Every structure is written in structure tokens, then in C-alpha cells.
Amino acid sequence: MKVKYLIEKIEGEAELEFDFKNGLVDNVNIYFPFYRGIEEILKNRDAMDALVITPRVCGICNHAHLIASVRAIENGLNKAGINIDLTQKAISLREFTLSCEIVQSHFKWFYLVALPQLLNLDRMKCPDNYILKASWASTNIVKALAIFSGQWPHASYAVPGGVSCDPTYEDIIQAESLVDEVIRFVENELIGMNIDEYHKRKEISNIKGDMAIIFGMLDKHNMKAKGKSYDRFAVFGEHPIFQTGQYNKKYSNDIDFAHIDEHPQHNSKAKSVTYKDMCYEVGPLARAIMTKNDFMLNLHDKYKDSVLTRVYARLDETIKLLVHIKSLLANLNVKELSCTLANMPKALEADGVGMVEAARGSLIHQSIIKDGKIQKYNIITPTQWNLSSGTQKEAGIAAQAIKGSVSIEEATFIFRTFDVCSVCTTH
Amino acid sequence: MGKDTMESVKKLFTTQSAKVDTNRGGEYYTDLYETCRKRLDELKALPVVNNKLDFQETIMDEGLDRRDFLKWASATTAMLMLPASFTPLVAEAAQVMNRIPVVWIELSDCAGNSEALLRSDGPKIDKIVLDIISLEFHETLQAAAGHQAEKQLEEAIELFKGKYLLFVEGAVPLGMDGQYGTIGAKAETFKDHLLRLANGAAAVIAVGSCATYGGIPAAAPNPTQSVGVMDVVSGKPIINIPACPANPSNMVGVVLHYVLTGKIPELDSLLRPKFAFGYRIHDNCERRAHFDAGEYVEEWGDNGAKNNFCLYKMGCKGPMTFNNCSIVRYNEAVNWPIGVGRGCIGCSEPDFWDKYAYERPMANANIKAPTGGVEKTVDEFGLALLTAAGIGIGIHAVASAVAGKKNSEKDA
């Protein structure tokens, strides 16, 4: 029996076409009925135009796109023999803004998508203050981001060689106080305990607050161990609190852009992506697995890449990042240079790759520049890794995770644990 | 450098760009006050469209008090270019906004305006106001999803026929019979969806550069043949609020104006509200003094950058861009692009993606520099192109001096 189902609230729509056999999902095809042609638009433009155009792929992870396109140019310059050494200040500011963007996205996913969807399973109306909570928390962390980036979404403050802003101590104090407020929100609302106590947790059941609600619901609906895919993970983007590499039965820190392939999909403009011919999961769970902390390793031993580990990883990462960005601000040396490359070389010939960890996983930009103009630009988004229908050989990551679901409600929740975004997938 | 170019540069920096009538005389405002008073009383008698959030309660939840609210009301009154005596009316209008049904749809976009306007931006009260008015019908924010949401939308446009404000985010792709973007289970194309919803709307408000001019999807070679709302919808009042993303204050301003007066605000010939797009970024820029003093950033990270000098030489498009960012700023007004040392990219101007884009020198940017009043700006692009940023700057020193002289002559 074939059933079509529309998924909304994902900044666009997705259509899932289920194949049911004996009451269980046997197969699923995923379509995104949307296309803008951003890569076509980038062709033949000035190399630097990418910095303005690519963020506009996505209203939620626009900053990750900006950093990826800057890194692609810098990588190309380095390969062309023009050495780019960022100052620690520039590195820290980019990291700060990138991390803030991940945090705001996770808040929105949790309060606007995941919790309401689960409450809906019980026909329970979602309390309106979830919307206000999401709005309050994401507004404040984005404000901290905008102090350095000028605006969010769609800032363009990162330039090859560094950043354009030159923050003062006052800016830093303002950002610190905003981060503190958001940490207080996390302690009071999200985890129901202070961060130190959270770090001492032994079990998931020790966690309180709104996070406890979601774990309780997963338990109640018997979904903790559902949603398993291939248990393969990849992390491409460099970030001091994430380890790059891949996991497929065993850990490896070797990961190479050259092994990535894109495959056109039937009926959809979104391409699927493979690494060494296999589908890999990217995102908070992949990052948590690669970081190998004990709590996660235990959870993974027990539940593998299930709904529980995936939901937990996304929320835990929110807290980790907030703690990390606080220390970034505390250690920022404002006396360092903001930018070390004064001007872009004329008639640039470069071929570079920029990889970044965005909210939903590894985001990759490849730009081939000839005579200062973009010859080819390729954008590979996290949702392409996770949300494709798959390849000839195997089903995609989310498609595999959905197999065996007992109902459409369960299947769509599993789908949403990957944090769906239509505009990125299709671009 | 040719004489034409020299003249045009002079003209660019000497013409008073602000031709917005901010004082229309006592009689006008007395009449307007009466009209607004009557309108608000009528609205108060109407049932609440959306009772999910109560304005007063929500303000309390956010830890704001009446004083914050009144501060906001007086700032908004000024933004709408109304006399201070209208402040109590604006405050009242904010509280009856939930009598105005709003439908918000997303077409070919990146959802950036939704993000900016509804969840991540705006002086606090703007955001609350937007949360309240748009909760019911905004796809991402409303409680319902899937078929339930579709049903809700259909009911809303039937029930509020002729009364609702339709907010549109995103461009309309016309290529391939509209198959580049479809919506709902019946795969209705974005164009058909827009036309159907616009048909029953009181007015259509295009939010962001995609909805106004086609935006990034319409950038050359425009793979999906995307256009803006005004290229597709006819026979309805259309208001354009460009910028990428559009500023929430301007959106709230438009809605408030409609609540207050029952009419759409005064527009320029690109259908932009004059209260927000009547001035150039350059006119009120915090770095303007450095421009006038000839102090520029010449390279990223140089001394000029450290001292917040003018970004004109780095390709700032502030002198060509009509918007109120320099006053309203972004993200609860914490900052704005020029504040972090990046020039304006002209994101609220038509075709910015092809003409302005990055810090491309103006000579390569095919810019027609605007001068004169707002209407003049868009209708009579009479200026020659600037030949090169560097030369332009050289000339500017002369032009500034001339400007100073002219003004003092006039004064005398």
C-alpha cells in the first residue's frame, strides 16, 4: 500500500511516499518540490560574490554558508601559494558566531518542532509558551552573534583572511551577558538544574526540565530504540570541540573530500551524497560519536543510532556549545589583527574546498575560480547527506531509519529527528 | 575624467535626498487623529481573530513593563513620521492588532524573513506584536501541520474574505510551468497559490527582496524565471518591504499604519512605504562624518578599519540604497552591517544581486546612482555611471567642498 504524506514546518515542504507492508513501513521515497538554482546563479560571477549569495541559500544556517564560502576561497588561496594565516582572534570570532547559529537552530528545533510533534501523538495541545521560549532563547543568542556579525540572518562580516569587525571590550561584555542569560534559560527551563550538576549526570533520567518531557514521551511511545540507520557517521568541518573523521564499525580520523560523490535523484532536484559509495549520517549525533565521550559511548552501545541518541546528541550539543563560547569570549585578545589579507589577488586562479559544521551537519562548498571568476561552484548541504532517498545501492540515512515504523506519525517524527530543512536540501 | 561624471558625482553628494513630507500642518494631523480615533474604536468592537496570546500577558512574560511599551510606542510613532501626540493611539493600535487577520505564505525563499521577523529579530515589542498577529496562519509557527494546516488556511481565507492582509515571503518561479515550486498535497504552483490567496486579501505585502523583486532566485541567469509579487498580482494594493532580510520594524510599521488608519501607508513608485524607504543609508550613517572628512578604510584590517572610518572605498552601497537600517539597525538594534565594518551591499535595491553584490567597485557594478526625491530616484535614473571608486572618491573631496560652499551661499 502506498501512502503520500506532506511534511511542513521545515522552511518549505517535503513529500514522503511510504510503502507499507504488513502494517510496517517497508520503503520510503523523499521528495522536495522546490528548486532555485543557486549553483547555476554563481557561475561566471566575481569570486567574492559567493560570500553574499551563498548565505541566502538558507535563512537558518546562513552563517555556516558564509563561513564555508570564505573557507573555500582561503583554501584555494593557500593551494595557489598565497599563505593565509588567520589570527586567533579571527578564528575565535568565526567560531563564536557559528556556534551561536547552531544553538539558535537547536532551540527552534526542540521547542517548535520536536516537542509539539510528540505532544501531538497524545493529542495534547502544545502550551503556547513553547513558542515564546523558542523565540526568547534564539533571539538572545542571535543578538550575541549580531554584535560581531552586524546582523542575523544574512551577515557578511567574514572576509578571506579574517573578519571585518573590530570588537571592543564593551562589545565582548555585552555578548557575555547575553550568553549568560541564555545559559540561565537552559538551566531553568531546558535541563532544570545548573550546568555543573548536569555535567555530573549518570543517566538520561537524571536530566530534568523540558528535556525530561521529551525523553518521557519517547519512553511512553516506545520510540527510544526506533529510527536506527546504518550507524555510520562523518564529520568534515573543523571546530575545536568536534573531532573530524568518520565512523563505520570503527573510528578513523582520516576523511577526504575526494571520496565524496553526488548522485542525481529521480523526481527531485536535490542530489544524494555518498562517501566511498556509502551513505553517512552527519550532524550532532555524528559529532558526538566522533568526540567519544563516555556518556555518549555508553548510550551508543545500548541504543546505537536511534531516536534517543539522536535527540539527546542535539540537545547535549546545545549545552556544550554554550559553555564553549563563553570561554571563547573570555580568552579573546582584542589587540590581535582582525584580518591578515588586505586585498584579494587580481585574476585569481584557485580551486578550494570549505567545510563547516552547521546545525544539521557538515556543510561543504567547493569553488573553482579562473581569472577571478567562478567557473564552478558546488554546495553540498548536511540535509543532502541525511535526507535523500538514497542511491541505487542503498536507501538514504533517514529513509533507512524510517523503515519498520508502525505508523506515519512515528515515521515523520523519526524523519524530524534529523532536523529537516527543505531550502538547504534543494538550494 | 569626463565632465559628465564629475557633474554626476557632485550631484550625487550634494542633492538633498530626503523629500519625505514630515510636516503636513496642524489641520491635516487633527483630521488624521479623528480618523484614527474612530477607526480604533471600531476595531475594539470587533471580535479577536487570534486569542492564543494576550498582548498584555505576553509583554509581562517577556519581562517588560508598561514603561518599555510606551517607549516603544513613541519610537514607532516617530518612525511612522507622525507627531508625538499620536503616541497613545499607536499604543492602542498595537493592542488591537489581533483584530486584523493576517495570512503569511512562503514561496521561493530561504525562510530568512520568517526567521528575522518572527523569531530572531526586532525590538522586543515588534516581535511580540508579530507573534500575536501571525501565529494563526504562519506555516512554521501555527500549531497545526499537514492537512490540518491546509484546512485551517482554507477556512481562514473564506471567513476573512476581503479583510485579511496577505504577507508573502519569497519569489514566484514562472519557469517550467511553475514546477520549480509547489505547495500542498495537490501540488499547486506558487503562482496559482499566490493568485488564489491574493484574490481575497485586503492588501498584499511583499516581504523581503525575493517577494518584491525576485531576489537571489532571480539573479542572472534566473534559472527558474523567478519574479516578484508585483509582477504577478494585479488589482490589489501591494506594499513592498524589500531588504534581505526585511527589517521587522518596517513590517510592524505597515501593519500598525493599516490598523490605525485603515489605509496602506504612502508609497513611492516602487511601492515601498516612504516612512522606511524615504532616506538613503548614507544620509543617517554613523560613519558619515568620516565620509565628509575624507577618511576611508582602504584595506581590510587597516588603521581606517580599526578607527571605524567610512567604507565607501571598500564598495559600500549606502549612498545608493534607500532604507532605514542606519536608524533602526538589526537584531533588537544591537548592531548592523556597517557597524561591523562591512559596507552596505544594497540588499533592498532592485537587482542588487547582479548590480551591487560584494565590494565590487562601483564602476563595475552598473549602478545608477539615485538623486533627488524618492519618486525621482526610481523614475528618473538620469545619472551617468561612476567610472571608478577611486576616482569617485577623489572627486568627492572636491564635491564636498563645493557642497559646503553652495549651502553656505544659500544660507546667506
Q: H/E series of chain A, N to C?
A: EEEHHHHHEEHHHEEEEEHHHEEEHHHH
Distance separating the two termini of chain B: 32 Å
Instruction: Name the helicity range of chain B.
Output: 40-55%
Walk across the major sheet of chain A and give the strand order.
Answer: 1-2-3
CATH level-4 homologous superfamily of chain A: Cytochrome-c3 Hydrogenase, chain B
Strand percentage of chain A? 15-25%
Radius of gyration of chain B: 22 Å
Number of helices of chain B: 18
The CATH architecture name of the largest domain in chain B reads: 3-Layer(aba) Sandwich
Query: In what range is the share of β-strand residues of chain B?
Result: 5-15%
Could you tell me the number of beta strands of chain A?
A: 13
- How much helicity do the residues of chain A have? 40-55%
The biggest sheet of chain A amounts to: 3 strands, antiparallel
User: Count the strands of chain B?
Assistant: 8
